[in-house]
Write a structure and sequence with these properties.
Elements (H helix, E strand, L loop, with lengths): L1 H27 L2 H58 L12 H29 L23 H13 L12 H6 L3 H7 L4 H13 L2 H8 L3 H7 L7 H22 L5 E3 L12 E3 L11 E8 L1 E4 L2 E3 L1 E7 L1
Parallel strand pairs: 2-6
Antiparallel strand pairs: 1-4, 3-6, 4-5
């Protein structure tokens, strides 16, 4: 055994000596420097080609940069224009010439968007404050199976839609101050033009229901908003102003719904009902060609029926 090890070690040493001998002979060969010089020149040539390509790319980037900057500037202008258009669109609504189904449908779309935006705004606050949506008053039903965890946001949206559009007091909903409220670009300025108008009382009543004590205390560490609203005021804070943006379109939607002839009748779809595209719209959008495969988890935004016209409700769907 020991002899085998010694023999193996001797072979390894012999192999190393052979490699060293070959390398020494190669290095001592007159042709070796020529081969090295040739290889160096090849690599230098390759480096120069790569540097040339880099310069070309840098030049192309320099040519394209102004074009990219211009495109980004135009995109920003378009986004700003779209945003201003959405904000100012309220000014295009007036009831001086009467109300119409088309006006109602436009208000429905704007109301749904504002409710969606406020729900998204509230969710951002919950992430900062650590308020648990699952333990809140939001209707996140335990039986609903969400495709994604992020889909719970639709339950938050459903909560605000229900609060803002259901259970309202008749005397708060009228067209008396409709044109005035919609003439302002900023909904909060419209509110402060007459804080005790029907719209003002609607905002106070809905805020106290939509924003429970636990939410407000978690968000702000106090109940100052609630106390101010209960005393008849409207706090000039970012949170309340966002709420008023949502409230304006919900209020105008309800006011026009009551004034149409025939009146717009609101409808919800019960959890567990089969999805029907004739009067339902899936939120988020799904391929619903095979309706029998989907059931309703909950209604996100109620629908309306105006005579023979149906404004489809938005629902969160699940697989059967």
């Amino acid at each position: 055994m020991i002899a085998d090890e010694r023999f193996g070690s001797a072979l390894e040493e012999a192999a190393e000596l052979k490699d060293l001998y070959v390398n020494v002979n190669e290095w001592s060969s007159p042709r070796y420097p020529c081969r090295i010089s040739s290889r160096i020149q090849e690599h230098q040539k390759l480096v120069m080609e790569l540097q040339s390509d880099i310069c070309k790319k840098d030049s192309q980037i320099g040519w394209l940069r102004p074009e990219l900057d211009e495109l980004e500037r135009k995109n920003m202008e378009l986004e700003d224009k779209i945003g201003r258009s959405a904000l100012c669109r309220g000014g295009s609504f007036t009831v001086r010439g009467g109300v119409s189904t088309e006006m109602f449908m436009d208000l429905y779309d704007l109301s749904a968007k504002c409710i969606h935006d406020f729900a998204k705004f509230v969710i951002s606050w919950t992430k900062v404050s650590g308020w648990n949506l699952g333990q809140s008053t939001f209707p996140i039903d335990s039986h609903v199976i969400y495709e994604r965890k992020a889909d719970k946001k639709y339950a938050v949206e459903a909560y605000f839609a229900c609060v803002m559009l259901m259970g309202d007091r008749e005397e708060y909903i009228s067209l008396d101050s409709f044109d005035c409220i919609m003439s302002f670009r900023d909904p909060f300025d419209a509110l402060m033009s007459d804080p005790d108008s029907n719209f003002g009382r609607y905002c106070r009543a809905k805020y106290l229901v939509a924003v429970p004590h636990s939410m407000e205390d978690s968000f702000f560490g106090n109940l100052d908003h609630r106390a101010f609203v209960e005393s008849g005021g409207h706090p000039r804070t970012q949170f309340y102003q966002k709420f008023v943006e949502m409230a304006r379109y919900a209020w105008t939607l309800l006011a026009v719904a009551r004034s149409l002839n025939p009146r717009a009748e609101m409808f919800y779809v019960k959890s567990g009902d089969q999805f029907r595209k004739e009067h339902m719209e899936s939120t988020p959008a799904k391929m619903t060609t095979e309706e029998e495969k989907f059931s309703v988890g909950f209604t996100v935004m109620p629908g309306f029926k105006v005579g023979c016209t149906v404004v489809r409700c938005k629902v969160y769907t699940m697989d059967f």
